[in-house]
Each structure stands twice: as C-alpha cells, then as structure tokens.
Amino acid sequence: MQLLIVNDERLTADTMKQEIDWESLGIHRVYTAYDAEQAKAVFAEEKIDIALCDIEMPGENGIELLRWIRAQGLDTECIYLTCHASFEYAKEAIDLGCRSYILIPARDEEVCRVVKETVELIRRREAEKRYQELGKSAVTETVERGEEQYGQKKSPEELVKEAVEYIGKNLQDEELSVNRVADHLALHPVYLNRIFKKEKETSLGQYIIAERMKLAEALLMEGKLSAYAVSEMTGYHNYSNFVLSFRKTFGMPPTQYVKQKKGNAPGEAGQTM
Known about the structure:
This protein is an alpha/beta fold and 273 residues long. The protein has 12 helices and 5 strands. The protein has a 5-stranded parallel sheet with strand order 2-1-3-4-5, with helices on both faces. Helices cover 58% and strands 10% of the residues. It starts with a strand and ends in a 10-residue tail after the last helix. It has 2 domains: 2-126, Rossmann fold (3-Layer(aba) Sandwich), CATH 3.40.50; 156-263, Orthogonal Bundle (Arc Repressor Mutant, subunit A).
C-alpha cells in the first residue's frame, strides 16, 4: 500500500517519513507533500491508499483537499492530524469519510496504531471485494456451462441417464457425491435428487452406494484383489467405512461374504462357512 503525508511543516513531514517503520505497518511506499497542490500532483501520478493529512495548512486546508479527493471518485482513507481547535471541522470531515483524527503533537506509537488499523480495514475491504467478484465469476461460469451443455432443455429421463453414466465412470473417485454429480450436470442438487428418485425410486446418494457395492461384490468374487484393494477401487479410501457399507448392504463383512458365497458354490460344499 501507498501512503501520502501532507503537512506544510516540512521538517515534521520528513521526520515522520524517515523515523516510522512503515513496512511493518503494511505500507510499502511513502510520499510527502507540503501543501494541497503538491498533494494533488501526487494523486495524479500515484494510487494513494492512505492520506495522513494536516488540517491547518495555508491555501487549501485538509478538509478542502479531502473534498477534492472525493470529487475525483477516489476511495483514499484519510487520517487527519489536528489540534483541539480544529474540531470545528469534525462534522464535515466525517461526512466526507474521514477515517480518524490524531491529536498533535502526535506520538509515533499513536500514528502507527491508527495507520495499522486503517491498513487492516483496507485489506478486509479488498478481500470482500475479491470474494464478491469470485462469487459472480463462479455463477457466470456455471450459467455459461449450463447453457453450453443444456442449451436445449433436456427431459428428466435424459438428465437421470447422464447422471447414471457419470456415476458409473467415477465410482473409484472418493469425492463422488450428490453435489459432485449435480455440479457436473449444472443442476441444483435438490432438484437432481428429486427427479432421480422419481425415475429410479431411490435417492441419488443411495444409488451411488448401491453401485459401489455391486462393483465391490463383483471384484471380490473374482478373487484377484484383496478386500483392501477393492475398497480403494470402489471409492472407499477408509477401509472401515467400506466394511460398514458392505455389512449394511450384504449383512456381513466382505471376507465372510466371499467365504460363504464360495462355500455354497457347486463342488465346494466341503468348505467352511
């Protein structure tokens, strides 16, 4: 951030510029001006985030300078250096968006405190602005993707079919979820789940689990992969969660299920259950 010190007392302005550790406050460049005209010249060349300005100056005073800053459409935060007699300007200064007053003679500690608070305020404001812009960008991107994919409105049957195809291709993805499928189709998850349940008579989340269990059963019965490997292959990177889902679906853990199935197979009656 950039700060401008405006003070007709040159020694005060120059000393303040040199003695304060501005970098530690988040200020990367400091300019000085000794009257309003010089300040305007700096504003014409640089983006000034904070103006540390004396009110009582010959020619245009600090209030008139702030009025000019606002007339230019600038959102510079202004901190006034003032004495008790200058509080007659308080109302107009507040109306113009003055950030704070510092009584003079001012201690460096007080200047640092107020400047640091102002830097933090500006950072929060800029972060909120970026957040809002990113939000708008994400909405626009989703709408554009939806228009591209569904420029011609698709029937619920077609949407459900695409959801099923997407699920089938991504069963190994641990992040596969209702929201992920809805995002892929550029639909609201509640709406997608509603039409899916109407078409398939089961919720989208239950369908994903059921498909994973079907795949798990097929892989286990082939006998080429361990239960741990099958867990990974069906999107369960936590083995305990895999066993829990498998037991809920088939009534027993995967290893026991395989033994029982193979034990009931023709020619294997002698095996234990």
